[in-house]
Structure formats: C-alpha cells, structure tokens
Recover the amino acids of this structure.
C-alpha cells in the first residue's frame, strides 16, 4: 500500500490522538498504524469526486475508524486496559496539586470533578483533596496519598495504595458497607469516623494502621478479623494477623500492669490485686486509673451498668480492656455506662478500666513541698502495682518497698512500686 504524499499536519494530529488516547502501545505499532491511516486517506483523496460518492466517503471513514479500534484491541496488552464504569463520586482539591488518572498520564484537577469507578486520585507533598462518594461518605486524602475508587455489590470500595485517608462513612443500609483495601488488609466500615494509614517500613514491607474515632470497624488480615470500637487502633503488617490497642496510652499501660501484676504475684505465691496509675496534680489531688469489676447475675446480657463512686461527684471515663471508650450518661442522678459494644454475658464477669479525676485524700501534705502516700498493710497480703506519675522536678526521699522501676519522661517522673494491699475502691 502506498503512503501517498506526506501531510505533516494530518500525521501530527493522528500521532497526538494515539498518544493521548492509548498508553503503553509500542512506538513501532503507533508508527505503522499512522502510516496505514495516512495511506488510506491519501488514496481516498486521489480519486475524482464523482468516483467518491458522499455515502461511500462516510463508509470509508467508518471502516478506517473500525480498523483502528480493532487494531487497538488486538495489539493492546490486556493488563493495560482500564475500564471506567459508572460514577463513583466527586473530588475537590483542598490545596496543592491533585491529579486523576485512568491508566494513562495523570492530569491536574482544578475544581470539583466527577470520578468514575476505576480512576486513581493522587495527592503530592503539601496537597490534599476531599472526596464524596455516591453514598455520601466523605474521604479526606492526606498529602502523598493515592487511592482508587471501585464499585462492589456490597457498596462503595476504596483501594489505598499509599498514604493516609480520613473517613467519615455514611450510615450504610442493611447488607451494605464501605470497604477500604490496603496491602494485605481489608477494612469493613459500617458507618463511623476513622483514619487509615498505610506505612512503608524500612525493609519495604507495608503496615496498615486503623484508628477509630466512632462507630465499629472490622480489620481483616492474615486470615483473622478484628473488631475495633471507638478509641481503638488496629495494626496489621502485610500478611500478618492484626493486633488491637487503645488510642489512650494509659489504657495500654494498665493492661501491661495487669499482666505484670499477675506474673509477679504468681512468682511470690500471693493473690494478684488490681493495679493503679496515680497521676499527681499540683493541688495534691490525683487522677487515678483503676480497675472496675462487673458481675452479671441475671439470665440476660448486661448492656448497661451503674457506676457508683465513693468520692462524691468526680469526672469519670470508662474503657474496655481492649481499649474501646464507653459512653457514659447521667440519668436520674445515676451514672450509667453503655456496654452495648461489649455486653457482659449471663452469669459472666468483666473488668473495665476507669479514669477518675479529682481524687483527694491519697496524698498527705507534710512539711513544705513534701507529700506522703501511705497505705496500711492488708490483713490478707496481695500484690498490686502502683505506678506514680510525679512532676519532673520531684524526687523520692523514701519508698517502701523499694521501687521496681523508675524512669523520667519529658514532663513526669514515673515510679512503680509493688504494694502489699490495693487502693480502696474508688468506683464500683
């Protein structure tokens, strides 16, 4: 087939069309296809007008277009084909450069723009974007992040390839949920606020961290599924089962003290008592973290529990041992904890961690600047770990028994003592 006379403008337009609509085709393929199209156009142009009826002219154009489309499908690598389906949501740049791509070169998003399933949205250093999904869920794409929106039968789906997103999921209808996929992990969201962070570790492996502000989330990884509640964090290394911890450091420390108390008590052959964290305040009061034991003598699940305090009306917060924050309300003068996220089974028993602020009477003022903490020896000795958190400038004149740990942080002096009697019950 002859190439015909050279038409640089036409050739340039065809090459631009190919390069913008197709990504990944080889240069030889594009060159051969361009020459073939030019030759067909040249042949058509060389015929007299009478030999080229208008109807046949349009048929030729349609035939050439069909040939191009078929050629693209025949030679285009299957892995490079990107199918964009229905509308999945919209994206709006918050600051900096935000791009969208669909298997080709990324292009900048300047204003609100509709996003279809299959497209990738990316932020860069110093840039952020807000995304609203079709179900009204909202995503905040943090700097240096990349996500893809997908459509699944169970509801909207997001793939987090790198970076971090904050999620405010809309309430999902029955049988539907929002899914977030990361490297080796899947997060099932039923309607909540959470952050998902994909971390690349020094060895190149990836870690998924999910922080839940409200609602309930299921984190699946390594064949295990973990249920996370408010104030909880789930961590999953690629291909490994997830672990849970609290977003409140003192709750995690209380769990550690419980384990250490049981180990030391077993070694000393004495019963373990409840540990406590005692944070000394400047007015000689204290914020105390302690354990509360709950028993359910009924034949039904216990979904609510009344906290009774022996100290008047302090501020109290309650947490599960897994770290979830429990809602607390005052009703008819009663302080009620909502246990619906962690009900106590019939005839069962559970322990909670309570934070009681404004506790007085634990420290006795002596000479100027000196405070004493005294506990009478119990008639039935047990072992309880007391962790004192004192001002950084404080020092301990005398401690009996001898501290098992002393360390300094930026703002506090932390001293841990193994006592032979527990604190009096502040809450029950």
């Amino acid at each position: 087939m002859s190439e015909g006379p050279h038409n640089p403008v036409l050739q340039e337009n065809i090459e631009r069309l190919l390069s913008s609509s197709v990504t990944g085709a080889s240069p030889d393929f594009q060159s051969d296809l361009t020459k073939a199209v030019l030759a067909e156009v040249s042949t058509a142009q060389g015929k007299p007008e009478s030999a080229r009826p208008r109807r046949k002219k349009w048929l030729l154009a349609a035939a050439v277009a069909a040939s191009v489309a078929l050629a693209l499908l025949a030679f285009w690598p299957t892995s490079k084909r990107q199918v964009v389906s229905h509308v999945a949501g919209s994206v709006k740049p918050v600051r900096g450069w935000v791009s969208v791509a669909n298997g080709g070169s990324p292009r900048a998003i300047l204003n609100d723009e509709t996003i279809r399933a299959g497209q990738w949205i990316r932020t860069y250093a110093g840039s952020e974007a807000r995304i609203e999904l079709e179900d009204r869920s909202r995503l905040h794409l943090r700097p240096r992040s990349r996500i893809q929106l997908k459509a699944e039968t169970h509801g909207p789906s997001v793939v987090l390839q790198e970076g971090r997103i904050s999620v405010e999921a809309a309430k999902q209808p029955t049988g539907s949920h929002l899914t977030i996929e990361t490297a080796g992990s899947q997060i099932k969201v039923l309607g909540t606020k959470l952050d998902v962070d994909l971390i690349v570790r020094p060895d190149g492996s990836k870690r998924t961290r999910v922080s839940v502000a409200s609602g309930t989330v299921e984190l699946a990884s390594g064949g295990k599924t973990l249920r996370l509640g408010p104030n909880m964090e789930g961590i999953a290394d690629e291909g490994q089962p997830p672990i849970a911890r609290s977003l409140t450091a003192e709750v995690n420390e209380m769990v550690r003290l419980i384990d250490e108390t049981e180990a030391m008590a077993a070694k000393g052959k004495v019963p373990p008592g409840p540990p406590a964290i005692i944070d000394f305040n400047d007015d000689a009061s204290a914020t105390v973290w302690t354990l509360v034991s709950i028993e359910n003598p009924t034949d039904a699940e216990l979904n609510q529990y009344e906290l009774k305090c022996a100290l008047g009306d302090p501020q109290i917060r309650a947490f599960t041992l897994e770290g979830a924050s429990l809602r607390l309300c005052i009703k008819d003068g009663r302080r009620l904890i909502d246990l619906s996220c962690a009900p106590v089974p019939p005839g069962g028993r559970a322990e909670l961690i309570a934070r009681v602020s404004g506790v007085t009477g634990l420290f006795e003022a002596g000479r100027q600047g000196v405070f004493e903490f005294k506990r009478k020896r119990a008639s039935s000795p047990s072992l309880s770990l007391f962790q004192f958190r004192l001002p950084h400038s404080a020092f301990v004149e005398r401690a009996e028994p001898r501290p098992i740990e002393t360390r300094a942080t930026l703002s506090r002096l932390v001293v841990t003592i193994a006592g032979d009697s527990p604190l009096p019950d502040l809450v029950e």
The chain is about 20% helix and 40% strand. Confidence is low (pLDDT under 50) at residues 1-5, 18-27, 47-84.
